Amino acid sequence: MVDDIHHTAHDPASDPEAIEEILEEDAVDIDFDDVVEAAAATVEAAETAPPSDGSGVDTALVADLERQVAGLKAQLEDRANQSMRIAADFENYRKRTSKEKDELATQIKGDTVIELLPVVDNFERARSQIKPQTEAEMTIHKSYQSVYKQLVETLKRLGVSAMRAEGQEFDPLLHEAVMREPTADHAEGVVIEEFVRGYQLGDRVLRHAMVKVAAPPEEGSQNPDIESSGASD
């Protein structure tokens, strides 16, 4: 009997400090089940072990241990909640910084492309206005047009796309109307000519297309084809 009491007194599960040691060993990664199991073993040992005066179960010790268990459970729950809040805050921070990084990269890319658009315009003007007459001129023409083609392909790989405004409904988010022309050949608000091509990078408009927009014909005016037909009769 004495040996049993001696064994119980030195059993780590019956020592209230055993539970605290679990917390001290790893203050972050605490297994809730291990602590509860250790606490239950401590209470059970206290209930089965006779007190020193031999009067039966030491209720004061059991009550004290139960209070300690309740306190430890509260600490564990608080630390678990803190851990979940920290994890959630970190995940939100990671998503926010990733989004800001992508937006910054897109902004820098767009600003760089805007500076290159006048170069593209000059290549296109040269292609439409210069008419090579000799073989040497044609060689030069093909050389700089190959550079233009390479530049356009690079812009496409970056996600830049050119607008095709002519024939489309005028959209103030994409187009800039620099002229309005009364006409009966096109519906009102339709783009009938593009002066400067517009470009987009994804959903971002890098440059609005400068266009001429159809307006309703003026009162009293007739279609030129009808007038010429009447004159010939």
From TrEMBL:
GO terms for molecular function: adenyl-nucleotide exchange factor activity; protein homodimerization activity; protein-folding chaperone binding; unfolded protein binding. GO terms for biological process: protein folding. Pfam families: GrpE. CDD domains: GrpE. Keywords: Chaperone, Cytoplasm, Stress response. It is found in: Cytoplasm. Homodimer. Belongs to the GrpE family. Participates actively in the response to hyperosmotic and heat shock by preventing the aggregation of stress-denatured proteins, in association with DnaK and GrpE. It is the nucleotide exchange factor for DnaK and may function as a thermosensor. Unfolded proteins bind initially to DnaJ; upon interaction with the DnaJ-bound protein, DnaK hydrolyzes its bound ATP, resulting in the formation of a stable complex. GrpE releases ADP from DnaK; ATP binding to DnaK triggers the release of the substrate protein, thus completing the reaction cycle. This is Protein GrpE.
